[in-house]
From TrEMBL:
Pfam families: DDE_Tnp_ISL3 (PF01610), Zn_ribbon_ISL3 (PF14690). PANTHER family: TRANSPOSASE FOR INSERTION SEQUENCE ELEMENT IS1557. Residues 295-359 form the HTH IS21-type domain. This is ISL3 family transposase. InterPro entries: HTH_IS21_transposase_type, Transpos_ISL3, Transposase_DDE, Transposase_Znf. It comes from Streptomyces silvisoli.
């Protein structure tokens, strides 16, 4: 009865193994077992053979029992291949679900360690494995990952393309994703047009390419999958929108109304007695982006002043070389905040308020200086009253 229970406990999914004994041995639990199948198949030709050549004991580390590492001492046989002319004269038998060629762990423990390695990788995986009483080094876990077969993937209908940093600011690769299953499909060694275009040409069937706005990926899509529709992915749309809004707000901060004094005063009055240290309210003159640009510009200029090379500055500040170069070439950070799209035509132009000519701007100056904004100036909407102009005329728009 006890033997049947042990058999079921240890090898419930394994056939052809007989447990002989289970012995606690210091820090170990040793399971002695032997193979019991009448014959084994040759790994080279597949012919079954019952001609035993020799016997020996294999030692396999197994998942721990009660916090103690388990060791399976399995008596196995070496067979002679009965197929004449087979390249494999003799072969060792393997037990499906328990052993594999040259393996020094049970198949079960190997699977557990592979999962740990995939989820946690080297160091963290090694620490967890020690806790689970299966001592493996981080290098062993990384080796296990490298030996794993890559899962079979089919060419996705909707392909996500984005870059990732192997070393930020220096080396970048490209990751390809199946947007419908959210599974990674492939990793490419760089982010050049040629590499991505070649992959697309070798994997026909992509209907939609979901990407950022880089010209390299746009061109790769046009070359490798000319029929595919290009869409901007949601993350980049939000990221670009947030940056554009922030930049626009920073540029036009002078037009923003100051908070009503009465509201501040009322709030301060309400909070009086709470002993709060309220800072005086003032117009907002900085944004996150502008702060960042100013800080980085200042740091780059300071390091340049010390005679440090741009490459080294980039390394120290974690900035791309081109970013460092941009900071180095302008005297003031404000020049960078103007925006590179200023003055360019855009598909959004028909929806923007009309930009007044210089002459109109001059004529409306009096209205703006008076504290009211005229719609003709493109500022915030306000009431435009006829005002005398230096030339003796009147505001053209309000005179209509
Ligand atoms: Zn054979």
């Amino acid at each position: 009865m006890a033997d049947v229970l042990l058999q079921d406990l240890w090898f419930h999914q394994v056939e052809g193994v007989v447990v002989e004994s289970v012995i606690p041995d210091g820090e170990l639990v040793v399971v002695r077992a032997r193979t019991a199948a009448g014959q084994a198949a040759c790994p080279a030709c597949g012919t079954a053979s019952a001609r035993v050549h020799s016997r020996y004991v294999r030692r396999l580390a197994d998942s721990s029992v009660g916090g103690r590492p388990a060791l399976i001492e399995l008596r196995v046989r070496r067979f002679r291949c009965s197929q004449q002319g087979c390249s494999q004269a003799t072969f060792a038998e393997q037990v499906a679900g328990l052993t594999f060629r040259h393996g020094r762990r049970s198949a079960g423990l190997q699977t557990v360690l592979e999962r740990v390695a995939v989820m946690l990788a080297g160091r963290a995986g090694s620490r967890l494995a020690h806790t689970l009483a299966a001592k493996v080094s981080r290098s062993t876990l990384l080796r296990l990952i490298r030996r794993l077969q890559a899962p079979e993937t089919s060419t996705p209908r909707v392909l996500g393309v984005d870059d990732f940093a192997l070393r930020k600011g220096h080396n970048y690769g490209t990751i390809l994703l199946d947007i419908e299953t959210h599974q990674p499909v492939d990793l490419l060694p760089d982010r050049t047009t040629a590499t991505v275009a070649r992959w697309l040409a070798e994997h026909p069937g992509v209907e939609v390419i979901c990407r950022d706005r880089s010209t390299a990926y746009a061109e790769a899509g046009r070359l490798g999958a000319p029929d595919a529709v290009h869409v901007a992915d949601r993350w980049h749309i939000w990221s670009n929108l947030a940056e554009a809004v922030e930049k626009t707000v920073v540029q036009h901060r002078a037009l923003l109304r100051e908070p009503q004094d009465t509201t501040i005063a009322a709030a301060a009055e309400a909070l009086e007695g709470l002993d709060l240290d309220l800072a005086p309210a003032g117009p907002r003159t900085t944004g996150r982006l502008s702060d960042r640009v100013r800080e980085q510009h200042e740091a780059v200029r300071a390091l340049l002043g010390q005679g440090i090379a741009m490459r080294e500055i980039g390394r120290r500040l974690g900035l791309a070389r081109n970013t460092v170069r941009r900071y180095a070439h302008v005297a003031s950070a404000d020049e960078l905040l103007v925006g590179r799209w200023t003055g360019r035509t855009s598909i959004l132009d028909p929806y923007k308020p009309p930009r007044p000519s210089n002459g109109t701007r001059r004529r409306h100056r009096g209205v703006r200086e008076g504290g009211r904004l005229c719609p003709g100036c493109g500022g915030l909407p306000g009431r435009c009253e006829p005002v005398p102009l230096p030339s003796g005329g009147r505001c053209a728009r309000s005179a209509r």
